[in-house]
């Protein structure tokens, strides 16, 4: 120890004084936060940014730390979340249309296996709590995929007759889709031509799914089979609905907000 102190150019008395000192409360607290962040960062495979991490830490430690404090500690630890590329923000022209009371939105997104084969996923998001209330996968992007997703959502939500919003894909403009919606007393809403912003909530969900899960796997080992991809995305949707807190929901998960409302 004497040699180490000599190399460091400090006295032994100074070393032992430092060792025996009582750590300030804030320092101890920051160390606890850092340990919690490290555990959650590993558990969620580097996905959480400081906003999501703040909610996760506060849940685990039963505290109410600020976003700035979590951000500062994550920067010290050099922990960075996976992020999506930022898109250019354009100013909206006057005459912007806002649809009223849209309770559900439906959309289809494409995924690929390692061999290049395409898999399609159709999902319905509830705008009340941002939860995914139904989703289905298929090798083919057709009417059957849309109908099965709609029927699944209706089966799991007996008595519901919401307004459902979609893009203007051929599946949603088909006679079969209109007939199915009418049979269940559902009102159909569609985005305006060339106005992808109307599909924002659904696009946002698919963006999260692909950034936080799909692209991470695809960049590493990739998806070998249809069932592997389906199982993995099913797991993410369960996480999204039940465990992923959202700022827009005041730090609650979609199903937590739903349970409170019920």
Can you walk through the features of this model?
This protein has 262 residues and is of the alpha/beta class. Helix content is 49%, strand content 13%. It contains 11 helices and 5 strands. A 5-stranded mixed sheet has the order 3-2-1-4-5, sandwiched between helices. A hairpin with a 5-residue loop joins strand 1 and strand 2. About 8% of the residues have low confidence.
Attribute tags:
11 helices, nucleic acid binding, alpha/beta, 2 domains, Integrase_cat-core, Transposase InsO and inactivated derivatives, Transposase_IS3/IS150/IS904, about 50% helix, about 260 residues
- How do the helices and strands follow one another from N- to C-terminus? HHHHHEEEHEHHEHHH
In one word, what is the shape? elongated
Under the CATH scheme, which class of the largest domain? Alpha Beta
- Return Rg in Å: 24 Å
Strand content: 5-15%
CATH topology-level fold name of the largest domain:
Nucleotidyltransferase, domain 5
Sheet having the most strands: 5 strands, mixed
* Helix content class: 40-55%
Q: How are strands sequenced across the largest beta sheet?
A: 3-2-1-4-5
Task: Report the strand count.
Answer: 5
CATH architecture of the largest domain: 2-Layer Sandwich
**Unreliable segments of 5+ consecutive residues:** 88-103, 193-198
How many domains? The number is: 2
Q: Please name the fourth-level CATH homologous superfamily of the largest domain.
A: Ribonuclease H-like superfamily/Ribonuclease H
- How many helices in DSSP terms? 11
> What is the average per-residue confidence, as pLDDT, rounded to a whole number?
81
Termini separation comes to 64 Å
Structural class: alpha/beta
Function: Involved in the transposition of the insertion sequence.
InterPro entries: HTH-like_dom, Integrase_cat-core, RNaseH-like_sf, RNaseH_sf, Transpos_IS3, Transposase_IS3/IS150/IS904
GO molecular function, one term: nucleic acid binding
Domain Integrase catalytic: 89-262
